[in-house]
C-alpha cells in the first residue's frame, strides 16, 4: 500500500505538471493571438507591445508568460489533491489527540481515497478496542468485587460459629452440635462457590478439552431428571418430561452436557418453587438439523430487561431474589460457556405462565441413531 501510494503520487505530480505545461502553452498561444488582435485595433496597446519587444525581446516575454501560466495551472489542477491531503493531515492530528470520531471527505477508489478510508477504519477500530478494554477492566473489577463478597459471606459465618465454639459460648451439647452443623453447611457452601469459580474459569478461558461422543439427548434428559427426584421432593416439586417420538443424536461431551442440565434444573428448582413443577422438553428439528432442550419453571417471570443479562457471570437479577435464593450467579454463565463450546446457543424466554431456558445444539448425522445416554464417567450431581 505504501509503495503503491508513493508511486501513485509521483505519477499524479508528473501528469499534473505535464497537463499544466500543455495548458500553459495553449493559454500562451491564445494570449498571443488576442494580443495581436488588440494591437491592431488599439494604438496604445500596440506601442506597449513594441516597446516590450524592443526592450526585453519577444521570446523572453513569451517564456515568462508561459512559466506564470504553467504555475497557475499546476496550482489549480493540484488543489483538490492538496485539500484532500490537508484533510488527511487534520484527521491524523485528531487521532493523535485521542479523538477517534474522525471523518474524511469521500474520494474515488484511488490510493488516496483508500488511504482516507483506512484512516477512518483504523480510528474506529482503535475506539472499539479502547471500549473493549474499558469494559474488560470494568468486568474484571466487578468480578473481583463479586468474588470477594460471595467468598466473604460464608467464610464470615464459618468463623463466627467457630469463634462461638472456641469461646465455649454454648449452653449444651445440642447447641454445640447446631453450631458445628451450621459451620459445616457454610463450609460446604464455600466449597461449592470455589468449585463454581474454578469451573467458570475453565469454561471461559479454554481450560476444557471437549471429548464429544454420540449422545441420545432423550435418555440423557430422563436420567438427569431422575437423579433430581430427591431434590424436587424436598422442594415440594415434581418434574414433567416431554419427549418426541423420533430419536436424535447430538455429538457432545457427556460430562459437560450433564452439567448444563444440572445447572438449569437447579436454577428451575431455586426460582420455581411456587409453580410446583419443573418441565423438561426435547424437540428435534430435522430441517434445521438442531436439537432443542428446554427446562421450564412456573415461578415468577424474569423481567424482560434482564433476559439477556442473566447469563452474565455473577448476575443474579434483583437483590431480593438473589438474596433469598443464595445463588452465586455463576450457574447460567457456566451453561452458556459450555453450550458455546459445543457450537450451540442458549436463551431465556418468558412465556404466558412459565419461564423457559432453551438450549439449541446441532444434531449429529443420522437423526435416527440410538446414541447413548450417560457415559460411565458422567456422574450426576444434585448438590
TrEMBL record:
<protein>
    <recommendedName>
        <fullName>histidine kinase</fullName>
        <ecNumber>2.7.13.3</ecNumber>
    </recommendedName>
</protein>
<dbReference type="InterPro" id="IPR050398">
    <property type="entry name" value="HssS/ArlS-like"/>
</dbReference>
<dbReference type="InterPro" id="IPR003660">
    <property type="entry name" value="HAMP_dom"/>
</dbReference>
<keyword id="KW-0597">Phosphoprotein</keyword>
<dbReference type="Pfam" id="PF02518">
    <property type="entry name" value="HATPase_c"/>
</dbReference>
<dbReference type="GO" id="GO:0005886">
    <property type="term" value="C:plasma membrane"/>
</dbReference>
<dbReference type="InterPro" id="IPR003661">
    <property type="entry name" value="HisK_dim/P_dom"/>
</dbReference>
<dbReference type="GO" id="GO:0000155">
    <property type="term" value="F:phosphorelay sensor kinase activity"/>
</dbReference>
<dbReference type="InterPro" id="IPR004358">
    <property type="entry name" value="Sig_transdc_His_kin-like_C"/>
</dbReference>
<keyword id="KW-1003">Cell membrane</keyword>
<keyword id="KW-0067">ATP-binding</keyword>
<keyword id="KW-0808">Transferase</keyword>
<dbReference type="Pfam" id="PF00672">
    <property type="entry name" value="HAMP"/>
</dbReference>
<dbReference type="GO" id="GO:0005524">
    <property type="term" value="F:ATP binding"/>
</dbReference>
<dbReference type="InterPro" id="IPR003594">
    <property type="entry name" value="HATPase_dom"/>
</dbReference>
<dbReference type="InterPro" id="IPR005467">
    <property type="entry name" value="His_kinase_dom"/>
</dbReference>
<feature type="domain" description="HAMP">
    <location>
        <begin position="79"/>
        <end position="131"/>
    </location>
</feature>
<keyword id="KW-1133">Transmembrane helix</keyword>
<keyword id="KW-0418">Kinase</keyword>
<dbReference type="InterPro" id="IPR036097">
    <property type="entry name" value="HisK_dim/P_sf"/>
</dbReference>
<dbReference type="Pfam" id="PF00512">
    <property type="entry name" value="HisKA"/>
</dbReference>
<keyword id="KW-0902">Two-component regulatory system</keyword>
<feature type="transmembrane region" description="Helical">
    <location>
        <begin position="57"/>
        <end position="77"/>
    </location>
</feature>
<keyword id="KW-0472">Membrane</keyword>
<feature type="domain" description="Histidine kinase">
    <location>
        <begin position="146"/>
        <end position="365"/>
    </location>
</feature>
<dbReference type="InterPro" id="IPR036890">
    <property type="entry name" value="HATPase_C_sf"/>
</dbReference>
<keyword id="KW-0547">Nucleotide-binding</keyword>
<keyword id="KW-0812">Transmembrane</keyword>
